[in-house]
Amino acid sequence: MTMNDEQGDARHLDTLDRDLARYSNLEIATSYVSRPMVGPGIALVFILIAGITAMLFFGQTSNAAIVVVATCLGAYMALNIGANDVANNMGPAVGANALTMGGAIAIAIVFESAGALLAGGDVVSTIAKGIIAPESIGTTSIFIWAMMAALLSAALWVNLATWIGAPVSTTHSVVGGVMGAGIAAAGFAAVNWPTMGAIAASWVISPVMGGAVAAGFLWLIKSRIIYRDDKIAAARVWVPILVGIMAGAFATYLALKGLKQVLDASLPLALLIGASIGVPIWLIMIPVTRRQSRGLENRNKSLKVLFGIPLVASAALLSFAHGANDVANAVGPLAAIVQASQSGSFTDAVSLPFWVMVIGAFGISFGLFLFGPKLIRMVGSQITKLNPMRAYCVALSAAITVIVASWLGLPVSSTHIAVGGVFGVGFFREWDAERRMRRARLDMPERVSFGPEERRRRKLVRRSHFMTILAAWVITVPAAATLSGCIFWLMSAGLG
After folding, report:
1. What is the mean pLDDT of residues 335-361?
2. Exposure of 183 by Cβ count < 10 A (0-12 exposed, 13-18 middle, 19+ buried)?
3. Nearest-CA neighbor of 255 among 237, 244, 269?
4. Is 84's pLDDT higher than 80?
5. pLDDT value of residue 91
6. Nearest-CA neighbor of 149 among 487, 494, 490?
7. What is the distance between the alpha carbons of residues 228 and 32, in angstroms, rounded to a whole number?
C-alpha cells in the first residue's frame, strides 16, 4: 500500500469518526428533547388503558361511550392528584433529607395505593349529592354531563396549579366543578349553600390551625430540647414522649378518617385507640432513644438522627390516610356517572365500584412518579428550610388538626393543613429569630446591630410562594366552578 493510500484511509477514518460523533451528539440531543415528552406519553397510555378497562365492563351497554370518556377523565384527574396532592405528605420528609426523592415516591406509591384499595371504598355522597340537589336536575343525561364537566374542570384546574407550582386542594377543585356544573344545569337554587359556606370557611380554618399546631410543637422542641445546655439528655426525655404523641395522633387520625371501610369509629373510640397505641410506643421508645443517642455530640445536628425514623413513618401514614380518604372524593363524579349509566337513576346514594378505585389508586401512583417531584420540592424546600424536627412538627400538625377539627365539627382540608404547617414553622422561626435578636441587642447594644437589608435577608419564608399559594387557594372553588360551567355549556350546545 502506498503512502497516499494510507493517508486516504486515515482521512476516511477521521471523517467516519466525525460523522459518528455527530450521530452520537444527535442521539444525545434527541434524548434531551424527548425527555419532557416521556411523562405525558406514559400518562396518555395510562388514560387509554383506563378507557379500555371501562370498555371491557360496559362494552355491551347503550351508555358505554359515555362511561369510557368519563373513565378517561377520571384517570386524568387521578394523575393530577398524584402530581399535586401527594406532595403535601412527602414534601417535609424530603425537604428535611430524611427521605430521598426516590424513596419518598416509592413509599407514597405503596401506601397511597394500599390506603385506596384496602380502606377507601367509602360512600361518596358528599361530592356527588351534597353539593347540588340531584332532584333539581331534570334528566339522567343532564346529570351525567354535569358530572363530566365537573371532572374535567377539576382536572384542568389541578393541572394548571401543578404547572405554576401551587399545592391546592383537589377535593375543593372537585367541589367547585360540581357546583359550577350544577349552577349551569339548574341555576343557583340547586347548590347546597350551607355546605359551600363550610367549605369556604375551611380556606381559613385549615391553614391557620395547621400552622398554629406546627408552630406550637416547634416551640416545645426548641424550648425543651434545642435551647437546653445538655441537648442529648433533654432529647432522651422528650423524644419518646413526642414519638408517642405522634403514634397516638396518627392512630386516632386513621381511625377517624382512614379506616372507615373497616372501622366506623366515633371520636371517643378513636381517641381510646390512639391512647392504647401511643402509650406503648412511648414506653418502647425510651430504651430505643437511649441507645440511638449514645456517643452523639451535644449539638443540634445530632438531634436530627433521633427524628429521622418517626418522620419517615409519619409520611407513610399520611399517605395511607390520604389514599383511603381523598381518592374516593376525587373520583366521586366518575362513580356517580357509572351508577347513573347503569341504573338510569341519579338520586340514590353513590357507592364506589372497585375497578373505579383501582383506576384512582394507580392514577395517583403514576401521577406522583411522573410529575410529583416539582411540588414535593416546593413544599419541602422552597417555602422555608426544613430539618427533621421542623418536618416532624408539620407532619404531626396534619394529624392533630384533623382530630381537633372533628371534635369541633369544623371542615378542614388536608392540603391546606400540611402547607399551613410549613408556613407556621417558617413564620415561627422568623418570630423566634427576631425575639432572639432583640434580646441580644439589649444585652450587647454596641455589638449587635441589624439594618433593613439584614432584616430582609433573615426572612425565613419566601413571600412570593406564600402569595402564590394563598391566591391559588382562594380562587380554587370559583375558578373550577367557572370552568365547569363553561364546559357544561359547551357540551349542552354541542348536544343541542
Report:
1. 76
2. buried
3. 269
4. yes
5. 83
6. 487
7. 51
> 116 and 323 in contact (C-beta within 8 Å)?
yes
Taking alpha carbons only, the member of 255, 260, 166, 39 closest to residue 465 is 166
390516610: which residue's cell? 321
**The C-alpha cell of 480 is what?**
373550577
Q: What is the band of 449 on the pLDDT scale with cuts at 50, 70, 90?
A: low
Cell 429521622 maps to which residue?
Answer: 308
The pair phi, psi for residue 379, each rounded to 5°, is -70, -40
Q: Which pTM value belongs to this model?
A: 0.81
Cβ atoms of 77 and 158 closer than 8 Å: yes
CA dist list (Å): 27 to 20, 23, 370: 10, 6, 23
C-alpha cell at 124: 361518596
CB 289 within 8 A of CB 244: no
Write out the three cell numbers for 463: 413571600
Residue (of 91, 435, 117, 86) closest to 259 by Cα position:
117
DSSP string of 278-295, one letter each residue: HHHHHHHHHHHHHHHHTT
Nearest to 167, CA basis, from 91, 223, 225, 104: 91
CA 197 and chain centroid, separation? 23
Low-confidence winner among 83-92, 99-108, 128-137 (lowest mean pLDDT): 128-137
**Amino acid, res. 285:** M
Burial of residue 486 (CB within 10 Å: 0-12, 13-18, 19+) is middle
Choose between 101 and 329: higher pLDDT.
101
Separation between Cα atoms, residue 173 and residue 11, nearest integer Å: 65
Query: Which spans in 59-100 are helix H?
Result: 64-84, 87-95
